[in-house]
Amino acid sequence: MKKGYWVCIYDKIYSEEKLKQYAIKAKSAVEKFSGKFLVRGGKSRTNDGINSPRVIVVEFIDYNTAINCYDSTEYKEAHDILNKYAIRHHQIVEGD
To answer: How far apart are CA 68 and CA 71, in angstroms?
Structure first.
């Protein structure tokens, strides 16, 4: 069975404080669905495209679990905190 991943590339962050609040709630939702953070910020080098201030990659046991986590009430509460305080590209992808 192939794993599911969240890949989130931030374009702009308008409030570090809201980002911290979001991260606490999002982490709880991700853990409820047995997600594992593979990348959470840290050093990065942009080779093509936008220069992102933050990149996140989360691994789930499968694609459907990644979707279920994103669509969950717990994650929606986290997502609502970040609304209007960041611009990002969030995708759910299947991979090995």
So the answer is: 5
**Is domain 3-95 in CATH 3.30.70.100, yes or no?**
yes
Structure token pair of residue 11: 């374009």
Q: Please count the other Cβ atoms lying within 10 Å of the Cβ belonging to residue 54.
A: 18
Domain spans in the chain, listed from the N-terminal domain onward: 3-95
* Whole-number pLDDT of residue 26: 96
| Model pTM above 0.90 | yes
pLDDT digit string, tens, across residues 17-52: 999 999 999 999 999 999 999 999 889 999 999 899
Long-range (24+ apart) CB contacts under 8 A made by 58-62 are 58/5, 58/6, 58/8, 58/30, 59/3, 59/4, 59/5, 59/35, 60/3, 60/4, 60/5, 60/6, 60/33, 60/34, 60/35, 60/36, 61/1, 61/3, 61/4, 61/34, 62/1, 62/2, 62/3, 62/4
